[in-house]
Amino acid sequence: MRIVPGDLDDPRVVDLLRVHLTSARAETAPGSAHALDLTGLRSPDISFWAAWDSETLLGFGALKRLSANHGEVKSMHVAEAARGRGVGSAMLRHIIAAAREEGMGRLRLETGSWDYFRPARALYARHGFVECLPFADYAPDPNSVFMSLDLGAL
Prior knowledge:
By secondary structure, this protein is α+β, with helices and mostly antiparallel strands. Helix content is 29%, strand content 32%. The chain has helices at residues 11-26, 38-41, 87-101, 118-126, and strands at 2-5, 46-53, 56-67, 70-78, 106-112, 130-131, 144-150. β2 (46-53) and β3 (56-67) form a beta hairpin. The longest helix is centred in the N-terminal third of the chain and has 16 residues, at 11-26. It is globular and about 40 Å long. It starts with a strand and ends with a strand.
């Protein structure tokens, strides 16, 4: 597996992003889905990576800079056929390392509170994320779980 900067013009990436957005929105209450679409991922404050096995797209993930020392894990997704192979953990470790390299001291994220998102919450917890209060522009929402990781504590 290799993780490289993602090409948002690659039709394979666009297709997997469409799957991600469709499933996340279907499993979240209206108004509570915060996954970034193609336009959102093109923002200058977003770093985006794709995980590949040869020519097969395994998944993707993004890091959004919130401030000089604060980032947000965004839009992580692993292709259905690649689940259970460590792709999510590899991508999350990559994002954490990139945040450190960029001088960030804290990472946060928002994910869903519904059962569909239970594996994602477990992944984040295994990597040291703990629940926290809403951050940035997020408001309290029973459909969301907010998590934080102190990069200085690792």
